[in-house]
Amino acid sequence: MIANSEKMNKNHDMVDVEKIRDKITLENLVDKIISEYKNEPIDLLGFGDADDEYRYLLFLRDSYIRTLSDLVGYFNKARADSIKVLEIGPFLGIISVALSELGFNVTVTDIKEFVSCKNLQTKFQKYKISYIESNLRDYKLPFNDSEYDLVIMCEVLEHLNFNPLPVLKEINRILKLNGLLYLSLPNIAKLENRLKLLRGESIHNPIIDFFNQLNPNDNSIVGLHWREYTMNEIKEMLEQMDFKIIIQKYYSVPFQQTKKVNFKKIIKKVIRHIINFKPIKRIIYSCILDNENDPTLGDTLVNYALKNKICSRQFHFTDATTPK
């Protein structure tokens, strides 16, 4: 049984991942928080999408657990209430709510369309999470220099349709020296994308998503992936913005293979022109590449980057490069 927010001790001396698992597993914590979104729906943009939001949270359950495990493990020797956390682009706030429940001092920032949602504000207020409106395209975050110990940015960078470097500089500015940027995003070189390219297909959003984004009755206002990255590209950007990479990980969505791959049978299926059957595509590509032992085929990139020093890099903006 998970204690509720009133009963949980937010002044525990340490955040120890093993102790937390003894009391309330991170899995149960995430499940408890997600279940609240079924009983207390958000409907972020007022389009009647609460059921789809809940299903989306269930789909992301394992990634939430992974992220929490990463963060709690990293700060397992620190007092939770001494860690100032900012989550950029929290969506419905699962990670921030969980961290607040575990005793962290949490603030979130997101676009006006999301932060202005009264149901979401109520959720954040319930868990004593501060929320502030901002838009990354303004290249200015409404926070003080060296204010945060941890900045979380999960599945946000790929949604920016403008140059991300000034945003990274702003994150550098608001982090304390040796503060942590936890950056998670899709891997553009994942197995699924390589398979699509082999078939001559695009790895980007379908064109219909452009129309959906500009449809007043659709909630895809920030749903497009404008630019995904490889791990080396993330490393190059962060290091040149005066971050020090300390950990980089690949994660994959498990692929359940029910039968042992029969290569001859696969070739016959290719010959019979059923290569477009999705499970077969995956099996064929698994034969070509060693997706079990090649981490670069993973679906998600996770980066731990410390603020090495204050970024003094200067940028020159023109009408063409200023997003607003």
Give the helices and strands, then pairings.
Elements: H1 17-23, H2 26-39, H3 50-59, H4 61-74, E1 84-88, H5 94-101, E2 105-110, H6 112-115, H7 118-126, E3 130-133, E4 148-154, H8 165-174, E5 175-186, H9 191-198, H10 208-213, H11 231-240, E6 243-251, H12 263-271, H13 278-288, E7 300-307
Parallel strand pairs: 1-2, 1-4, 2-3, 4-5
Antiparallel strand pairs: 5-7, 6-7
Helix pairs in contact: 2-3, 2-4, 2-5, 4-5, 12-13
Characterise the protein shown here:
The chain is 37% helix and 16% strand. The chain is α/β, with parallel strands linked by helices. It has 2 domains: 17-255 and 298-307, Rossmann fold (3-Layer(aba) Sandwich); 256-290, no CATH class. The chain starts with 16 loop residues before the first helix and ends in a 17-residue tail after the last strand.
Question: What's this entry about, in short?
Answer:
The protein is of the alpha/beta class and 324 residues long.
- Name of the level-1 CATH class of the largest domain: Alpha Beta
Which range best describes the helical content: under 10%, 10-25%, 25-40%, 40-55%, 55-70% or over 70%?
25-40%
The CATH topology of the largest domain turns out to be: Rossmann fold
**What is the fourth-level CATH superfamily of the largest domain?**
Vaccinia Virus protein VP39
In angstroms, what is the radius of gyration?
A: 21 Å
**Spans of at least 5 consecutive residues with low confidence:** 1-14, 255-261
Mean pLDDT: 86
- Which CATH architecture of the largest domain? 3-Layer(aba) Sandwich
The structural class is alpha/beta
- Describe the main β-sheet briefly: 7 strands, mixed
- Quote the distance from N terminus to C terminus: 49 Å
> Strand order within the widest sheet?
3-2-1-4-5-7-6
Give the strand tally.
7
Total of domains: 2
Count of DSSP helices?
13
Tell me, what's the shape? globular
Elements, N to C (H/E): HHHHEHEHHEEHEHHHEHHE
What portion of residues belong to β-strands? Answer: 15-25%
